[in-house]
Amino acid sequence: DSAKPLRGRKVLVTAGPTHEPIDPVRYIANRSSGKQGYAIADALAELGADVTLISGPTRLDASQNVTLRAVESAQEMLVACEETLPVDAAVFAAAVADWRVNNEASQKIKKQAGALPDLSLTENPDILATISGSVSNRPALVVGFAAETENIVENGKAKLDKKGCDWIVANDVSASTGTFGGEENQVFLLKGASTESWPKQTKQGVARTLGAHISDFFQSKST
Ligand code: PMT
């Protein structure tokens, strides 16, 4: 079926920010809206894939043809990803917090005159690196993102090597670009030594072009 080249393929997409709790009412987060990841989930479902969208907290509604799994923290996102395996392809568009508070308070921290809360941070698991390194359950195609504010391609390539994924979509997230939260994105697709620069376009446009690359990947594998 040429209109549904991903029919029969199971795909996992992550999207949105993660919220890392400080206490029952406070958290650390970032400016990801989820728009890029939701657009990718939609585009892949449109191509016939069976899509599970694992999303941090956003204001978006998932399409009906996508299975949504809502999570809050990076640790929850990792568990949800592992529970969704095996999949044929995984696309990691979420802006996962690199750090979480390791002394999360069980009660709301009280404001006390002159005393500041003592927050200590610890590193979150790297979901992309963990799934890329999975021995028994690695998806045939693992696509990561790289959110950079300088040396976009160079830093993206370094992430491709370090995280062990197959492709990286590298984007400039400097404040002036409006990538976080905005409607448009300008990305580079890094596959091994090859670098493609895509024009600035809507996040839906990026998602459709990425979907075409993913379809080609599976088409050339099966012929
Ligand atoms: O949500 P929008 O407002 O639409 O914005 C889209 C976006 C800018 C968030 C998106 O296009 C994007 O770049 N997503 C990745 C954001 C990010 O966290 O990038 P990073 O360079 O810090 O991480 C590199 C890769 O590792 C990413 O695929 C990320 O999902 C993954 N990662 C990072 C940290 C971690 N602990 N676990 C991970 O899996």
Automatic annotation (TrEMBL):
<comment type="pathway">
    <text>Cofactor biosynthesis; coenzyme A biosynthesis; CoA from (R)-pantothenate: step 2/5.</text>
</comment>
<keyword id="KW-0460">Magnesium</keyword>
<feature type="binding site">
    <location>
        <position position="163"/>
    </location>
    <ligand>
        <name>CTP</name>
    </ligand>
</feature>
<comment type="similarity">
    <text>In the N-terminal section; belongs to the HFCD (homo-oligomeric flavin containing Cys decarboxylase) superfamily.</text>
</comment>
<keyword id="KW-0511">Multifunctional enzyme</keyword>
<feature type="binding site">
    <location>
        <position position="108"/>
    </location>
    <ligand>
        <name>CTP</name>
    </ligand>
</feature>
<protein>
    <recommendedName>
        <fullName>Coenzyme A biosynthesis bifunctional protein CoaBC</fullName>
        <ecNumber>4.1.1.36</ecNumber>
        <ecNumber>6.3.2.5</ecNumber>
    </recommendedName>
</protein>
<feature type="binding site">
    <location>
        <position position="159"/>
    </location>
    <ligand>
        <name>CTP</name>
    </ligand>
</feature>
<comment type="similarity">
    <text>In the C-terminal section; belongs to the PPC synthetase family.</text>
</comment>
<keyword id="KW-0436">Ligase</keyword>
<keyword id="KW-0210">Decarboxylase</keyword>
<keyword id="KW-0288">FMN</keyword>
<keyword id="KW-0479">Metal-binding</keyword>
<comment type="function">
    <text>Catalyzes two steps in the biosynthesis of coenzyme A. In the first step cysteine is conjugated to 4'-phosphopantothenate to form 4-phosphopantothenoylcysteine, in the latter compound is decarboxylated to form 4'-phosphopantotheine.</text>
</comment>
<feature type="region of interest" description="Phosphopantothenate--cysteine ligase">
    <location>
        <begin position="11"/>
        <end position="223"/>
    </location>
</feature>
<feature type="binding site">
    <location>
        <position position="145"/>
    </location>
    <ligand>
        <name>CTP</name>
    </ligand>
</feature>
<feature type="domain" description="DNA/pantothenate metabolism flavoprotein C-terminal">
    <location>
        <begin position="6"/>
        <end position="215"/>
    </location>
</feature>
<feature type="binding site">
    <location>
        <position position="98"/>
    </location>
    <ligand>
        <name>CTP</name>
    </ligand>
</feature>
<dbReference type="GO" id="GO:0004632">
    <property type="term" value="F:phosphopantothenate--cysteine ligase activity"/>
</dbReference>
<feature type="binding site">
    <location>
        <begin position="125"/>
        <end position="128"/>
    </location>
    <ligand>
        <name>CTP</name>
    </ligand>
</feature>
<comment type="pathway">
    <text>Cofactor biosynthesis; coenzyme A biosynthesis; CoA from (R)-pantothenate: step 3/5.</text>
</comment>
<keyword id="KW-0285">Flavoprotein</keyword>
<keyword id="KW-0456">Lyase</keyword>
<dbReference type="GO" id="GO:0004633">
    <property type="term" value="F:phosphopantothenoylcysteine decarboxylase activity"/>
</dbReference>
<comment type="function">
    <text>Catalyzes two sequential steps in the biosynthesis of coenzyme A. In the first step cysteine is conjugated to 4'-phosphopantothenate to form 4-phosphopantothenoylcysteine. In the second step the latter compound is decarboxylated to form 4'-phosphopantotheine.</text>
</comment>
